[in-house]
């Protein structure tokens, strides 16, 4: 337990709090992705169920001033009336495969005097604005249409200016056109008779689960990785590593002494190696110049006697 006392230092406490926060954020983001996955599965089930049910009379599903319920979205409805071409509303900023365009919403006047907003499809504009005169006209006279019910959009993008908007909201369009319209709107599925020039049909959502499952796993993996890294640093610190920060400086007693090289033996010259060494080695490693001069003294004494 004594070796874990470093965990109570300020540096390690802050480090632990950061790891806990990151793991919590990763967990919440993973849950968010899995919730989106469940919502997508529910939406796909609703679309498939409504597609199999077939078209229903529009008055059985929609009514003026009543929002579209979630189970009713993507239901197929059928209505008969006359297009009010003069009240066409252009939905701006609708790109398709990188090409600029608009969606064309035209009210369909019903027999009871109410109107159904019909998104007739997409029209390419080549990065320029479009008005009612620019888009192909709908079929004249009485028309029978079928379409998928859609919920109204929300936010500032639903504001209508000069019969143009960025998102469809039946209430905003009703006020701008001074019409009584049914709540919600429909994406055109078919119309009879067919127009002279058809717009591109709306793009339906893909009925797959999307990438949400793998995104959720990735976020949870990041959270687990942060926790694993924290405990690995604890293990490394106990083992003698550096931990999450710089290690403290060692004291003089803890420093490892630098080994010193042994003294080198003096190298003998070639003359010393070739001359005979009659004298005994001087203890203590004395130099040849320091040896006793006994042999020289004997030679001088012998010369004087001669």
Automatic annotation (TrEMBL):
Pfam families: SURF1
Membrane-topology descriptor: Multi-pass membrane protein
Entry GO CC: plasma membrane
Region named Disordered: 243-306
Keywords: Cell membrane, Membrane, Transmembrane, Transmembrane helix
Transmembrane region(s): 12-30, 217-235
Comp. bias (Low complexity): 248-258
InterPro entries cross-referenced by the UniProt entry: Surf1/Shy1, Surf1/Surf4
Family in the record: Belongs to the SURF1 family.
Name of the protein described by the UniProt record: SURF1-like protein
Organism annotation: Nocardioides cavernae
């Amino acid at each position: 337990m004594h070796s874990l006392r470093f965990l109570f230092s300020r540096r390690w406490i802050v480090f632990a709090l950061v790891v806990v926060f990151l793991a919590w954020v990763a967990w919440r983001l993973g849950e968010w992705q899995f919730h989106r996955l469940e919502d997508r599965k529910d939406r796909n089930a609703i679309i498939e169920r409504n597609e199999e049910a077939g078209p229903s009379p529009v008055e059985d599903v929609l009514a003026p001033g009543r929002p579209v319920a979630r189970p009713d979205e993507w239901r197929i409805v059928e209505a008969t009336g006359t297009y009010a071409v003069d009240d066409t509303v252009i939905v701006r900023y609708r790109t398709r495969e990188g090409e600029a365009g608009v969606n064309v919403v035209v009210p369909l006047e019903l027999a009871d005097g109410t109107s159904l907003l019909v998104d007739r499809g997409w029209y390419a504009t080549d990065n320029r604005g479009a008005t009612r005169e620019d888009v192909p006209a709908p079929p004249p006279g009485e028309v029978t249409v079928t379409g998928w019910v859609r919920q109204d959009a929300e936010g500032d993008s639903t504001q209508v200016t000069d019969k143009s908007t960025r998102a469809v909201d039946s209430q905003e369009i009703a006020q701008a056109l001074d019409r009584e319209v049914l709540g919600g709107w429909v994406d055109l599925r078919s119309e009879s008779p067919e127009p002279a020039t058809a717009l591109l049909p709306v793009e339906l959502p893909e009925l797959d689960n999307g990438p949400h499952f793998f995104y959720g796993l990735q976020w949870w993996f990041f959270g687990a990785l942060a926790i694993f890294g924290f405990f690995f640093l604890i293990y490394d610190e106990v083992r003698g590593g550096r931990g999450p920060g710089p290690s403290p400086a060692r004291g003089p007693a803890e420093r490892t002494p630098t080994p010193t090289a042994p003294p080198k033996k003096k190298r003998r010259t070639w003359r010393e190696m070739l001359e005979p060494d009659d004298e005994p080695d001087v203890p203590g490693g004395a130099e040849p110049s320091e040896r006793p001069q006994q042999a020289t003294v004997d030679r001088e004494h012998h010369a004087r006697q001669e």
